[in-house]
Write a structure and sequence with these properties.
This protein is an all-alpha fold and 194 residues long. 75% of the residues lie in helices and 0% in strands. Among the domains are: 39-77; 89-137.
């Protein structure tokens, strides 16, 4: 019995070791499968959500910076009004009006200069795009002018009126006597009938 017990124990030990090895192999295969697909659908969703949050945060920050820049520029450009306008005399008010007028003239001059430079840049951009298109061999179709439908309708009506020609008036007159049967021909006819 000792041998049977010992054999039995050895078999159980072998089976247990085989089960452990199988378990390790299965675990290794599962880990390999998990490593294959790094971006699982859950990870993709989480990554997308994080990217959207980051983009929204960046957008808010940019808007805030633009607003701060706008406020700073407005503070530079706008001349504050004095609080005591009612108590000012005419000469002070006139000086203030002249100061505002000078500021307006300066801003209008700057505006004109900027609009001129913008027009120049637009012209240069247009010229460069034309040059690029010429080099590529692509030609831009020019914008067609709009033609009013009334003019074309009038021209069609005039053409149709000129197309109506009295054909009968231009026909030649044909001498019908030429085709009449004369007396001689009637005699020949009578001879043939007999």
């Amino acid at each position: 019995m000792d041998e049977d017990d010992e054999d039995k124990r050895k078999r159980e030990e072998r089976d247990r070791k085989k089960a452990e090895v199988r378990k390790r192999l299965e675990e290794a295969q599962r880990q390999k499968k998990a490593k294959k697909g790094f971006l699982t659908p859950e990870r993709k969703k989480k990554l997308r959500k994080l990217l959207m949050l980051k983009a929204a945060e960046d957008l808010k920050q940019q808007q805030m910076l633009k607003e701060q820049e706008r406020q700073r520029i407005l503070a530079e450009r706008i001349i504050p009004l004095p609080d005591h306008l009612d108590s000012m005399d005419n000469s002070e008010l006139q000086e203030l009006a002249e100061e505002f007028q000078e500021r307006i003239m300066e801003l209008e001059a700057n505006k004109y200069d900027l609009s001129y430079t913008v027009r120049q840049k637009d012209f240069e951009i247009n010229e460069l795009t034309i040059a690029v298109n010429d080099l590529r061999g692509k030609f831009v179709k020019p914008a067609l002018k709009k033609v009013s439908n009334a003019d074309t309708k009038f021209s069609k009506i005039k053409k149709s009126q000129s197309a109506k020609v009295d054909f009968r008036a231009n026909l030649k007159e044909v001498d019908t006597k030429k085709f009449e049967l004369g007396e001689e021909k009637e005699e020949v006819k009578a001879d043939w009938a007999k």
